[in-house]
Amino acid sequence: MIKCVILDDELLAISYLKLLCEQIENVEVVKAFNDPKIFLSEIDNIDCNLCILDIEMPGMTGLQVAEIISGSKKIIFTTAYKEYAAEAFDLNVVDYVRKPIKKERLIQAFEKAKELVDIPHKKDLIEWNTNIGRTVIFTEQIGYIKTSEIDSRDKDIILNDGTTIVLKNLSFKTLLEMLPSKDFAQVNKKEIIALASIKVFSTNEIITTIQAENDHFLKLQIGEAYKNSLMELFGK
């Protein structure tokens, strides 16, 4: 997720830019400012990784603002004036977008930003509301996931050490999008397994390394709808 802050002295420009950002996947506008001095007084305390700065502003230009924050935040410039382009890129910014801003051009700028901003990769961790509050879980610690028996909207994550954490109100579809596809697979309508937790498998059943009752290992039945994708994942 790119978390951005907007700085532009024109309120209409801010509204329009926020509207565009809302239409772009994995982009969140955390806050918007129309005063550079207020922006600078608050930016260090805002959880964001990208700033969208207008260049032409009274009192202080976006270029001057960028010189102050460029060490800690990535920057996209917006301006109606092309003569600032060279000076803007001297500051090593992500991109320089001319006004009037078009959605397609803004998407291009965000694509560049995704390669540069410090975003935890979804293949490393997931973050969600759980039974112990907002929780960050490293995916390499996850052994097995199943639909909660108490509430089917929740999902039980069993970690490699046997700890169970309940993800609140989360669909398998959304969860699979958060997990690295090469490391996890859905086995049936109610279960997901980490490939590292698989001991042996057949066309109908997976025997895992996860301890079950009576010192047996957990066995999972492969749903008919998931057989082909699992076989492809296993290279069969």
UniProtKB/TrEMBL annotation:
It comes from the Bacteria. Keywords: DNA-binding, Phosphoprotein. This is DNA-binding response regulator. Residues 3-114 form the Response regulatory domain. The modification 4-aspartylphosphate is found at D54. SUPFAM superfamilies: CheY-like. One of its GO terms (cellular component) is protein-DNA complex. One of its GO terms (molecular function) is transcription cis-regulatory region binding. InterPro entries: CheY-like_superfamily, LytTR_DNA-bd_dom, Sig_transdc_resp-reg_receiver, WalR-like. The keyword Flavoprotein does not apply. The keyword Protease does not apply. Gene3D superfamilies: 3.40.50.2300, LytTr DNA-binding domain. One of its GO terms (biological process) is regulation of DNA-templated transcription. It comes from Chryseobacterium carnipullorum.
